[in-house]
């Protein structure tokens, strides 16, 4: 087990060295997660057809919902746990992550049962047409029941990195992605299982990756591991308080995923209105591509998060600022690269998903370069939201996420096509991201002038001691 852990000193190591040590395995893990998504799209598009690709896009918000739950509890628990670790409260940190895993799993078990019980109605609510509904329902019924493993795979990444094991966290993503790629090919092509095969392959890959995390957190030689909790009334009250605070800290991470789901939902409505099912199929390619970009930016934000939170707990404001600016520069550089590749290679990217004979091909090839103009602003926004989460400024993070992901995005999706026609649909997301970046600049300058508040571990020190007495 010791081989799984790396020597990481969040307090004394140079920020650049520390960030680099966390960034490489985190980005590699996210790249494999991106391969998980993109190969699923390629195999579905090539092996089943453009309608199948559109159907997966219809139910994708449900996958994003479970991912968002995982990220919300992962961010919230890891920020709280890292602050406690910086003050030597290891047992409290263990309890924090245990609470987050138990509650998120129970929540997703309930929602998955609900979604599957009313699958046709859910697909209709998400914008599925008569032509796409049967395919969407088939995919949904074989993937949604495994949602709790999707959440655990996402939240577990935070806990493993905080425990000093970014390389093992990367391996969990690698194993999940490789399994998905192999099984996707086998189930769709040789076996001919269609939508069921695509969904089941993803479910198996995710489950195996999540079980690797559970195995890690159950080992007693881990510093940050699962811890039994008493079921007394006082323990339940303190758990409710802790879960509430974690959810507030991580709510913007959840909302980021829900914002992508909102983009897909509203975009599907607008595309089907202007360009029918072929427009939805074209948009689905962008929707497969967008989470991949998000994963890389999220990897950068997640690499900075334990550094920022740990040093924030020690009131090391200079190290906090250096970590944030380093993450921001890295994300902007990646955003520029992604935008250039997408603009100049749009036809090749689209051809990976569907044949050139489909009408959706030309729609997507013309739209992706417009869509890519927002990638740099998206980079700034994701890293900045992560920064606000890490320093317990949950209100700023939540406000920014709600504005960019729902209000501005919806307004741009419905307003720009009226002004610019079909190109306006593709430019809606970039404009929403640009406006959000301008707002973040204002908020960051304003927040620097305010006196920093006390960190969580100092606010709740008395309650934490009571909690320790309970267990």
TrEMBL record:
Pfam families named in the record: MatE (PF01554)
GO cellular component: plasma membrane
Record-linked CDD domains: MATE_MepA_like (cd13143)
Keyword Transmembrane set for record: yes
InterPro entries xref list: MATE_fam, MATE_MepA-like, MATE_MepA_subfamily, MdtK-like
Ranges annotated as spanning the membrane: 21-43, 63-85, 97-120, 140-160, 167-188, 194-217, 243-267, 279-301, 322-344, 368-388, 400-419, 425-446
Protein name per the record: Multidrug export protein MepA
Membrane topology: Multi-pass membrane protein
Keyword check for Transmembrane: yes
Sorted UniProt keywords: Antibiotic resistance, Cell membrane, Membrane, Transmembrane, Transmembrane helix, Transport
Annotated family: Belongs to the multi antimicrobial extrusion (MATE) (TC 2.A.66.1) family. MepA subfamily.
Superkingdom classification of source: Bacteria
GO biological process, alphabetically ordered: response to antibiotic
GO molecular-function terms, A-Z: antiporter activity; xenobiotic transmembrane transporter activity
Compartments where found: Cell membrane
